[in-house]
Amino acid sequence: MGVSRVTATCILTVVVATSLAVLTPGARGLGRDDDFPPGFLFGAATSAYQIEGAYLDDNKGLNNWDVFTHTQAGRISDGGNGDVADDHYHRYTEDVEILHNLGVNSYRFSISWARILPRGRLGDVNPAGIAFYNRLIDALLQKGIEPFVTLNHFDIPQELETRYRGWLGAGIREEFVYYSDVCFKAFGDRVRSWTTFNEPNLYTRFQYMLGVYPPNRCSPPFGSCSGGDSRREPYVAAHNILLSHAAAVRNYHTNYQAKQGGKIGMVIAMKWFLDPIFFGDYPRVMKEMISSNLPKFTPEEKKLLQTNKMDFIGINQYTSIYAKDCIYSPCALNTYEGNALVYTTGVRNGKKIGRPTAFSSYFVVPQGIESAVMYVNDRYKDTPIFITENGYSQHSNTNMEDLINDVERVNYMQCYLKYLSSAVRKGANVRGYFAWSLVDNFEWIFGYTVRFGLYHVDFDTQERIPRASAKWYRDFLTGSSLKDDTVQSLRADS
Ligand code: BGC
């Protein structure tokens, strides 16, 4: 039985003046051991480019984000970049220590491809890159923290961008298989959980449809870029990613899984990516709508996908929005949804779907995590599920007291975990939960203007300061009593 019990009033987060409408019946205790199965992974997540810094250290090659942030700083809200970020490359021992203090049993991080293979498979493996991740993995294991490793979280060596036009060139598939093989060989004796890609459905949209991420390719009306084809290229890139994924999974299953005993999956942000992986083809409606712009799988490729299903599904779940099907009744489509005939919005009849966060399109909708998990669980037949990211953002220019005493984040985590535990009770095969993020970090095109960390980071001094949410999470995970006044008063308010 868990010693840690917390109460959460999970409110429907529509705020009208000062009134808060209660959505769920009453407050209910939540306990790590009572509400989640044994062996459940509880962790925090980060990604390489967002925290490591050290962008030129120890023979690391330049990656697409290094080049983009340096050449097009105007596209980043504050002109920032990941050159230093959280300086995690040099401070990883401290970061492992704060993970340990949180009481997590797992840590999700990604490997920087350009640190391992600065020039892709035609160059050498960089021993310093291998050594860094070996040190990190060993330090985690010494603290009883299981590494949960993502092979690709948005960053690719710039050389591959140039050589293959990034994910548009089929040649990059072989590169990914080679890179993942190097990682399985080097780290697989200690890493039991691998994910190939992070959110490729979102990433390809940002890269090749809206053109806001490198290599900034798009066409009107989706965006204004110097080159690109928003109706075709995102699908070409996604196709290459799906086939890279399947080939890497086949290699892992064939050559590593039996001796290393690990599992491999992919992290998605919902939507259509899972159908090709599980059923070997794109959804029928997608094929009809996108028709000739959607690449076709050959019979061999279909077989590759179908026979190399992944072992688990990673879901990044932050928010929910309203969606209206525009296939049968015409509606005003927004370009953000690309070619999908769907209208999405966070506001209906003048009311927001949940309380707003620093991200204008992210609202606090805790019940959405349960629906998302149940949907995936039903559709993909009980494949184990991990919530690989879930988190709450604050504006960096919020006053320091509120940044640290992050009551809203505590409420967010409590409520999302409560609905996650409800999905577990209803039979969903959920195996883990990772809070995004361990520390404030470089938030892509928003630079350092928003903060997702359980730990506040002073980017001048690199000091990590535990927020109320870090203390709450530690309390939930370890049952250790909280001495901190801010958290106690926050508790009294809930
Ligand atoms: C990404 C993270 C990002 C987070 C918050 C996710 O889509 O995987 O890299 O920081 O959302 O925007």
TrEMBL record:
Signal peptide segment: 1-29
UniProt-listed Enzyme Commission number(s): 3.2.1.21
Keywords: Disulfide bond, Glycoprotein, Glycosidase, Hydrolase, Signal
Keyword Kinase carried by entry: no
GO BP terms, alphabetized: carbohydrate metabolic process
Molecular function GO labels: beta-D-fucosidase activity; beta-galactosidase activity; beta-glucosidase activity
Keyword hit for RNA-binding: no
Catalyzed reactions per annotation: Hydrolysis of terminal, non-reducing beta-D-glucosyl residues with release of beta-D-glucose
Top-rank taxon: Eukaryota
Pfam families: Glyco_hydro_1
UniProt family annotation: Belongs to the glycosyl hydrolase 1 family.
Name of the protein: beta-glucosidase
